[in-house]
Design brief:
614 residues; seven-stranded mixed sheet
Length: 614
Amino acid sequence: MAETLEFKELDNVVVRFSGDSGDGMQLAGNIFSTVSATVGNSISTFPDYPADIRAPQGSLTGVSGFQVHIGADVVYTPGDQCDVLVAMNAAALKTQYRYAKPGATIIIDTDSFGQTDLDKAQFKTTDYLGEMGIDPDRVIACPITTMVKDALADSGMDNKAMLKCRNMFALGLVCWLFSRDLNLVANFLREKFAKKPAIAEANIKVIQVGYDYGHNTHSSAANVYRIESKHKVPGRYMDITGNKATAYGFIAAAEKAGLKLYLGSYPITPATDVLHELSKHKSLGVTTVQCEDEIAGCASSLGAAFGGALAVTSTSGPGICLKSEAMNLAVIMELPLVVLDVQRGGPATGLPTKSEQTDLLQVLFGRNGESPMPVIAALSPVDCFDAAYDAAKMALEHMTPVVLLTDAFIANGSGAFKLPDLDKMAPINPPYVPEELKGTWTPYMRAENGTRYWAVPGREGFQHILGGLEKDDKTGAISTAPENHDLMTRKRQAKIDNIEVPDLQVVGDADDADLLIVGFGSTYGHLHAAMDEMRKQGKKVALAQFRYINPLPKNTAEVLKKYKKVVVAEQNMGQLAAYLRMKVDGFVPAQFNQVKGQPFVVNELVEAFNALIK
């Protein structure tokens, strides 16, 4: 009689795939997360790329990781540490074991732990498990390379091509551990490699071999785990990265506004994927231009805005430095422009593949003169869609450049995205100059809310010139009059101040918290998870996460002054805290600041926050 396996129900699990940057860990992780999202699990992912373009094979600096947190209920973070670690070589085990929980299952390819591999990874002995203090009973050690070559021996593939399939063996073994349907995996691969069916079938065969290895050897002590979804909401879902969600949000906004979408951009990590994604959608009226530099990317987008398009320019922190003059031009010309800043580690070239929140003060104040500009910060990979839509709506309806802040963590991370109904999304109504003003209209004539009318070129009777020199409020002609400059400065500021944004929401123990946690943008998941953990411990804690930073929600001062203790947590040296102190009289919060290029660790947050309320 065949042995009956025990299926254990789990609420959540964290899996981390790691190996050389050419080992396909990102693809394996993406497939596993996509399959998990397809069956209704909540997911949060964290791709951790090496900074080297292509580090030497087997080197410590060339390890690429992909972590995914899968939950039956809502998960807010990719997890502090993993339950399962896949280490495809010695360097991966050496560098990634620090992210494994005590008692985690470790999957290794024993074929990649030869003497040369151990030397590159700076192991001192051949007993690498003992050297790292790893219990061998927790290790699934299998000759992955050998088994993959044996499986594909009759495929006609060369050795290099066969080795590229090693990641699929590991994926198959992980699918066995968590009872994933291989048909879903096969469908994904056949779609991805539709033009290379032989490659798809080879990968599918290797996945089955990995799955069978787990089944035949009863890996993980004959236990197979299931994560059932607790709160399924009907609808069509997809696993989506923050960058792709951002691109889709811009497309949706252009469709809703009835406009063409233009992106002027220059490639820069980690924002380039937005350019890549939008370039695929010419059929939807999208025009993308890869310009010669960052300045041209922003200036060409400004020209598109003058011409009547939804104009976007995308970059990261170094590009914001270069675009600042053209962004300023958008301010004084009062044209709609969305500036996407996918933040990364700085200063200078800094940490191109890592994540920080260090551009906040730059996008608020990093321009000459009084140059007010709305700033929105997306909260998660999925929220990037809504944040992009909202930024476009704000720019178009208020005739202003708007900065949308994301960062490498949420741009490259992913979540389960429920496809929206475009008909139910908020309308977008640009302030086109009314036809009845023909003959009396001037370029800086404004609607009742202070927004400059938009006269799209081609309308008879509305020809006009805009530029970077100050203009007369009444005639639109160049003016150096002191009183006029003061008036125009105040009108530009008032236009931004009058933009209506939703109130700041407080979650958790909103009425009687002993501590209010405050953050902005992508730290939402980690701060929420820290709050949840503290509340489980019996502490009274609340969270207020800023999505709208300029203008601030009207109830900001009321919320921040309501609580005895407030801590502002951010991945910089205190930029949001400084801004809030400037905006709210008498506000002096505690601060939690880290600038590691890595997401917050929930356990560290809990320890630090608990120390504030002892």
